[in-house]
Amino acid sequence: MKNNQKLFIFLIKLKIYIISLISIHWAAMVAIKIFTTPYRKPKPFEPEIFKKAERFNIMVDGFKIQGYRWQKEAKKKILIVHGFESRAYNFDRYVAPLLKKGYGVFAMDAKAHGFSEGKTITLPEYKAMLCELEKQFGAFDGYISHSFGGIAICLFEEMHNHPNAKLVLIAPATETITAIKLFCAFLKLKDKLRLAIHDYIFKKSGFRVEDFSIKRITPLLSNSILWIHDEDDDITPLADVTPIIESTQKNIQFVITRGLGHRRIYKDSKVVQQVIDFL
Question: Which side of the chain, N or C, has fewer Cβ within a 10 Å radius?
């Protein structure tokens, strides 16, 4: 970690600590803002396939969201949904193979990512984008998702229930409660503040942190699901996935990789081929 990054993290810790001395609830609000702000910005290098895309925008809760699509006349269409601190460009290697299979392909920059507006993003906001896409373009026949995008897709499907749509979950953020726990551990936030964050989320959304869980949702879905996860994932740990694997749900096909971690996994050529074959 570079010195400027260490200083930035130290200042965040100090800020939250000082505010917590005044109000634990105020500190929880500040922590949530940090938790939902993508600081890592992938370089805006435009892959060749994106130069051939039709660009479009949709409005979601007053924010302009950037979209890309190919072969809009195709009868079946796939939506690519990226993870936190990522962007649509990162999934360029999936587009051409899908086009060759005759699919129409859509990819989005989520709120606060890529060329989309906004500074923070929450799961309800990501789900709202998916709802608006379906409203404007109809239901999709399949989804390719990574990390934060994976849990957003599952929450969306729980509400909309398109059982024939195929779901690809690559290193999905399985348990939000784990993500918050890791976030608090990284910033060395006390349990009192972690619980205040849980309380803030409940008051804002009407749902417990435990409700934002793929483990809770998958038994409710009958979709055919391809779930790819790496043993060495330190962002969305495999330990959260184990109970789902052990539940032996017949509609879920698991692929466990090794040595790819959380971010390299969706760029791996074998993983890309497995996804295309599944769809």
Answer: N
> What is the number of structural domains in the chain?
2
Cβ burial of 96 (10 Å; 0-12, 13-18, 19+) is: middle
CA atoms within 13 A on the CB side of 176: 28
Same domain, 203 and 239: no
Q: Which of 133, 132, 140, 160 is nearest to 217 (CA)?
A: 160
CB atoms within 10 A of CB 267: 16
pTM of the model: 0.94
Domain carrying residue 133: 44-174+214-278
State whether 125 and 58 are in the same domain.
yes
Q: What is the pLDDT of residues 160-200, one digit of tens each?
A: 989 999 999 999 999 999 999 999 999 999 999 999 999 99
Three-point CA angle 104, 49, 93, nearest 5°? 80
Q: What is the pLDDT of residue 14?
A: 87
Residues 28 and 150 in one domain: no
Confidence band (pLDDT; 50, 70, 90) for 1? low
